[in-house]
Design brief:
With about 110 residues, the chain is mostly helical. It contains three helices and no strands. Helix 1 packs antiparallel against helix 2 (about 30-50) and helix 2 packs antiparallel against helix 3 (about 50-105). The longest helix has about 55 residues, at about 50-105.
């Protein structure tokens, strides 16, 4: 039983769990957590195949990719909020333009 549980099996399980979580979860922060789990599995797989120079580079660059991903999520949320504000004022703008047209026609 314990022969089945080794570093490679654990890394594959982490990568599968992370990939399924990224696909199935809806909230962006939950996706970030799942990407981190996926990256941990990838790191373990690299170490288990003894590519230590690649593992060092992965250990350095993975946190940077998570930071870039979080910054992109923040920017997307800001754009969505600004579009919601624009669309919330749209009916008021249409109504005021209709009133201007009626006033220019002489109040018909």
């Amino acid at each position: 039983m314990l022969e089945f549980i080794d570093l490679t099996t654990i890394s594959i399980a982490l990568m599968i769990i992370g990939a399924i979580g990224v696909v199935l979860l809806k909230k962006p922060l939950d996706k970030v957590i799942m990407v981190s789990i996926l990256e941990a599995g990838l790191f373990l797989a690299i170490v288990s195949f003894k590519y230590l120079d690649v593992a060092f580079l992965t250990a350095v660059l993975d946190p940077l990719s998570i930071i870039v991903f979080l910054l992109a999520l923040i920017k997307i949320n800001e754009v969505r909020k600004s579009k919601l504000k624009d669309y919330s004022t749209l009916p008021k703008m249409i109504q005021s333009s209709e009133n201007e047209i009626r006033n220019s026609e002489g109040g018909k």
